[in-house]
Write a structure and sequence with these properties.
By secondary structure, the protein is an alpha/beta fold. It contains 12 helices and 11 strands. The chain binds adenosine monophosphate (AMP). Adenosine monophosphate (AMP) binds next to strand 10 and strand 11. Pfam families: DHH, DHHA1.
Length: 315
């Protein structure tokens, strides 16, 4: 089904040391793809060292495997990147020093940085690509692997709601459920929020600014928010969902500055406007209806919002 399925299989067989890297500011799709793929490799191939690197989702920590890497391992390893379109966003310090790179992704192809790749930009999630690849090759998907993959599948598809959810998505879900995923446990761990998060959602809505006849809504989050609440970046960002599902709002975004980052990160969402066309002009990209960008200051945000207004008004 995928063009390079066999090549990925061959590469995994060929290398003893396999490093899997996520994108910076990880979400469940990249982390679920990385952990799921690690389990699949360990369960199906003998004598492999698999290292997952990068930041750990919502923990502000690095993956422990990074401490196990030596120069020799890195120089003789294949790096498999999951859920990352551009090289700059690959969250691995020594990405230039590996022997070769294989890319598994579902973003629009913007940066051809790997020797070989499986990229399906029609897939709602990278975990969908990993699941269907493993199934195509009849590899064992353990309950543990399936659980990681299912996390990514339901978060990136908005619980099977977003536009690109299709038959392949449900096929992946079917395979993962048949591998023993406990759906209710996953849903509880993802969507049952603690009070602090609920209070933050409420506050996030209250500070939203509405522009262009309410067609654009923005939540601006400065460093103080991160200092004053005990929530991770992904949790803070998840409050963007308070602006979704509102008829008048055609494009909604959150711009946030963490204390650990010089730049301001912007997350943009829409139901039907190609926001990716704007994001790419602001050091960003992603998908037609879900994109991210990185800007240097709050003035640049005004310019980005102006471009989004033009996009909405054009229609
Ligand atoms: P986010 O708003 O961070 O959840 O990202 C939405 C989508 O856009 C995800 O698929 C990201 O991988 C992608 N994305 C986010 N930021 C960037 C960026 N600066 N450059 C390219 N793609 C991005």
């Amino acid at each position: 089904m995928f063009n390079n399925s066999q090549i990925l299989l061959k590469k995994i067989k060929e290398y003893k040391n396999i490093i899997i890297s996520k994108h910076v500011s990880p979400d469940w799709d990249t982390q679920g793809s990385a952990y799921g793929l690690r389990e699949i490799i360990l369960d199906n191939f003998e004598d492999k060292n698999v290292f997952v690197v990068g930041e750990v989702l919502n923990k502000g920590l690095r993956e422990i495997d990074e401490t196990k890497l030596t120069k020799e391992i890195i120089n003789n390893a294949i790096l498999i990147t999951v859920d990352v379109a551009n090289f700059e966003r690959v969250d691995f310090e020594f990405k230039d020093e590996v022997k070769e790179i294989f890319k598994i992704d579902h973003h629009l192809e913007v940066d051809n940085f790997a020797e070989n790749k499986i990229v399906d930009d029609s897939a709602i999630a990278c975990t969908q690509v990993v699941t269907l690849w493993a199934s195509e090759l009849n590899l064992i998907i353990s309950k543990e692997a399936a659980t990681f993959l299912y996390f990514g599948l339901i978060t990136d598809s908005g619980r099977f709601l977003f536009e690109k959810t299709n038959g392949q998505t449900f096929l992946a879900a079917k395979l993962l459920i048949e591998s023993g995923v406990n759906i209710t446990e996953i849903y509880s761990s993802l969507f049952l929020k603690n009070l602090e998060l609920a209070i933050w959602y409420n506050k996030a809505f209250s500070i939203a600014e509405f522009k262009n006849n309410n067609s654009i809504a923005i939540i601006k989050v400065d460093e103080d928010v991160f200092k004053n609440i005990d929530l991770g970046e992904e949790e803070i960002k998840s409050a963007l969902s308070v602006l979704s599902g509102i008829k008048e709002i055609k494009i909604w975004l959150m711009a946030y500055k963490t204390p650990f980052n010089e730049k301001i990160k912007v997350s943009i969402r829409s139901r039907d406007f190609d926001i990716n066309s704007v994001a790419i002009n602001y050091n960003g990209g992603g998908h037609k209806l879900a994109s991210g960008a990185k800007i240097n200051n709050w003035d640049e945000l005004n310019s980005l919002v102006k471009d989004l207004e033009i996009l909405v008004n054009k229609k």
